[in-house]
Specification:
Largest sheet: 2 strands, antiparallel
Distance between the termini: 20 Å
Number of helices: 13
Low-confidence stretches: none
Number of domains: 1
Strand order of the largest sheet: 1-4
Number of strands: 4
Length: about 325
């Protein structure tokens, strides 16, 4: 079950399948999505274990318990599915099932579609629709964003979620198979739902947020390297790498700065800067501060860069499979 060569082939096939089909609406209506089921379990536990009347230590322990239960249940179900498929199906059928499950835990097409949904109205000069579109992929206040603010938010989300939605599940899938992908996805979902710095989640979501930082440490840096390698023709790769290394540690997040700084350096734009979350200002630093402000056209360039990263990733997976199986 933990043959890295086999799982590299499965993950590559899953990435191609998800990039082609995404998660079809018909399938979503009938069975939802793994992240939806994880989210429901998280919500049930959070309501029960994160009550205002509880003491701070009890709320922190409740958050730890929530992580253990959600990750444990998710991984256990994935192991059961693996065992059953190998007991009942032909090896080719097993590969097909594993590929379908791997595809469900990747978000390459979904991310591309959401960012494209920001580009289209922004390129047409419709700031209202562009703000509505970018609000679906960022947590900041978008009410007063101009073209540069919207484009910057979309590019930052594209860069960071390349790591969270693609590189990280791929890496953990190659290393630990389907259970590794499921464990990662559950941790990332926990962080997305609970890892907010506000009175409700500051204690309860702290363990989930820290664990997410740990499991994303290597994928974020790999993602930054892939963006550097995918830099557009005419860009000095050494200079892009220098900016990435210099600016990545500036971000408060230990991981988000790597793909974001690489994206900024590749496109020659300035990303980051002050933001507002729920009326609370956040003094984030600028990445590639000497760059120009991003515009709608830069989202298109960012999406092309995103596709080149996927080509490089598929090439690495194919090379890894050939190296292990020859």
């Amino acid at each position: 079950m933990l043959d890295s060569g086999y799982w590299a082939a499965v993950v590559a096939a899953g990435l191609l399948l998800e990039g082609w089909l995404g998660w079809p609406d018909l399938l979503f209506r009938f069975v939802r999505h793994p992240v939806v089921w994880m989210g429901r379990l998280i919500s049930i536990l959070e309501i029960r274990l994160n009550q205002v009347a509880y003491s701070d230590p009890r709320r922190w322990r409740g958050g730890v318990l929530t992580v253990v239960v959600v990750v444990g249940v998710s991984v256990l179900l994935s192991v059961v599915v693996l065992y059953c498929s190998r007991s009942w199906l032909h090896p080719l059928g097993v590969f097909v099932v594993d590929t379908l499950l791997a595809a469900s835990l990747l978000a390459a097409r979904n991310l591309y579609s959401h960012v494209l949904g920001v580009l289209q109205p922004l390129a047409a000069g419709d700031l209202i629709q562009a703000r509505l579109a970018v609000a679906k992929i960022v947590g900041r206040d978008v009410t007063d964003l101009n073209e540069a603010g919207i484009a910057g938010a979309a590019l930052e989300s594209l860069a960071e979620n390349t790591s969270d939605g693609v590189i990280a599940p791929v890496l953990w899938g190659v290393c630990l198979g389907l259970p590794g992908m499921v464990a990662y996805k559950s941790i990332n979902t926990l962080d997305s739902m609970l890892g907010h710095r506000n009175p409700r989640y500051e204690l309860f979501g702290r363990f989930a947020a820290r664990l997410d930082d740990v499991v994303n440490w290597l994928p974020a840096r790999l993602c930054g390297v892939l963006y550097v390698l995918a830099a557009p023709t005419g860009k000095a790769m050494g200079e892009v790498w220098r900016i990435t290394r210099k600016d990545a540690p500036l971000r408060r997040s230990p991981n988000a700065g790597w793909p974001e700084a690489a994206m900024a350096a590749c496109l020659g734009v300035r990303l980051g800067g002050p933001k507002r979350y729920d009326e609370t200002p956040a003094a984030e630093p600028w990445l590639n501060q000497s760059g120009r402000l991003p515009l709608a056209d830069d989202i298109d360039l960012g999406l092309r860069l995103y596709l080149r990263v996927h080509i490089l990733l598929l090439g690495l997976l194919a090379s890894f499979v050939v190296f292990l199986w020859l």
